[in-house]
Amino acid sequence: MTNLKAHSPAPADLEGDLASLRGDGARMAPHYPVPVRGAASPVPPSLIHGVTVPPGSARLLAAMSEYGD
């Protein structure tokens, strides 16, 4: 005979608050280990080439205020 009971790992409270979200993250964290790798080193500007920005995007970014204004 087949067991038809289903177990869902999802939280029962789908309208949870920040505390339940943090708890869900803490329970999932052991399942996704962080890969070991060294710190990234900065890339010298002389090695950055071939990047183009469309004029519309450049205007949009120029019109944006700085973060925290």
Describe the secondary-structure layout.
Elements (H helix, E strand, L loop, with lengths): L17 H11 L26 H9 L6
What does this structure look like?
The chain is mostly helical and 69 residues long. Helices cover 29% and strands 0% of the residues. It has helices at 18-28, 55-63. The longest helix is centred in the middle third of the chain and has 11 residues, at 18-28. The protein is flat, with a radius of gyration of 23 Å.
Short account of what is shown:
By secondary structure, the chain is an all-alpha fold. It contains 2 helices and no strands.
Query: Fraction of residues in helices?
Result: 25-40%
Tell me about the largest β-sheet. none
Query: Could you state the order of secondary-structure elements as H and E?
Result: HH
Task: Report Rg.
Answer: 23 Å
**Contiguous runs where pLDDT drops below 50 for at least 5 residues:** none
* Chain-averaged pLDDT: 77
**Alpha carbon gap, first and last residue:** 65 Å
Shape: flat
Count of alpha and pi helical runs: 2
Extended strand count: 0
Question: Characteristics of this structure?
Answer:
69 residues, mainly alpha, flat
